[in-house]
Amino acid sequence: TVGPVADVQTALPTRAPVKMRVDRCRKVVGVEIPVESMETSFKRLGFDFTYEDGVFTVVPPSFRFDIEIEEDLIEEVARLYGLEKLPDRPPLARSAMKPSREERRDQHALRREMAELGYQELINFSFVPEDWERVFAGNDSPIRLLNPIASQLSVMRTQLIGGLVDILKYNLNRRAERVRVFELGRVFFPDTSIEEGPWTVKGVRQPQHIAGLAYGDADDKQWGKPARRVDFYDVKGDLERLAAPMKLCFVKEAFPALHPGRSAAVYLGSKRIGFIGELHPKAAQAYELPHAPVVFEVEVPALLDRPLPNYVPVSKFQSVTRDLAVVVPAEMEVEKLFDAVAAAKKKDLRLAPLANFKLFDLYRPQDAVDTVAEKSLAFAIELSSRTEEALTDEQADGAVRAILEALEGVGAHLRA
Fold first, then answer.
1. 230-261: per-residue pLDDT in tens?
2. Are residues 267 and 273 in contact, defined by beta-carbon separation less than 8 angstroms?
3. 320-329 β-sheet, strand order
4. Helix pair angle (130-137, 161-172), 10° resolution
5. CA dist., res. 251 & res. 336, Å (int)
6. 3-state secondary structure 326-364
7. Fewer CB within a 10 Å sphere, N or C end of the chain?
8. Nearest-CA neighbor of 77 among 122, 28, 9, 110?
9. Which of 163, 157, 255 is nearest to 212 (CA)?
10. What are the backbone angles phi and psi of residue 264, rounded to the nearest 5°?
11. Is the pTM of this model over 0.90?
């Protein structure tokens, strides 16, 4: 048998009334909608409402959970009034085209340059595993996240190399043989001098860096050149092209992420802006890389400013070329010799015709046992007339003597 069915009462949710000001509605929509049209809209929707002193008080039905604030009612009024009736008004603010600064380029120019060099751009997370900071930056106290999206992504990065090496490993696992990647992004350093602002976070400095990685053969497989592995000087040339026409200086220095004997600091003028070199053997072993890639990382703002072109008329006379070979201590850096000649050119009038001074040969004796280890450097000197007269032999000889004196001043002597 079936007993009597008990009465079941379902309690409907109580909806709080929502107020809508007529003036506010007209201001948001931008049209003088009549009050009668607003009343008609609420009746069509089945809303209970009252109107007093320019304000509608509406009680929405229990099933209209989307009606909670004044803007919800304004949206319904505009929809039922007819969106096609709303006028199309052009923006009132004038848009002006700002001229670009000729002496400064934007970040996209750096991206285009890297792409032309054969690198592919990456976009990695700014939060990274904590061991990346220890391995690639020697940083034991990075900025930690209070609520990381994953347990391993727990700190903010201070370098971009970790992300590049991780992507390299990903590609090698898929049988890639030649990899060129780069990233342009922000890194994060603790800095108590940074104040809170629209684009800053208190206590955190957020400079932009650009980093690149090259692995595998220097060139694609071809018949014209024998295959060889990419080296320090290949990537150094890419970095110099990225910075052109500015001249970079490379000084031997050790970094946590790099091979201690195959790394250098990158200087622009007297400011150190980054580093370049082979990945540290321990890091290459930890990531099970067959051989170490060559990486670099530099500050972006330093590469954006560039000097304006300076017109120099081409001489009507043929240039004069001379060779000069000197002997220096084996540990001396060639940059020291270039700096000596550049400093002498600013002071010595005999060097006014100097147009080019470059290294073209390096020789290290193999059997120098009883003497101090030395190396021989040969330089090509190009002299060009800056006047309406051709260079004389006396002027050319004077310029060569001035160069030799500058080199002797830093410890070099003429090769016998």
1. 999 999 999 999 998 898 989 889 999 999 88
2. yes
3. 354-363, 374-383, 320-329, 413-414
4. 100
5. 10
6. EEEECCCCHHHHHHHHHHHHHHCHHHCCEEEEEEEEEEC
7. N
8. 28
9. 163
10. -155, 150
11. no
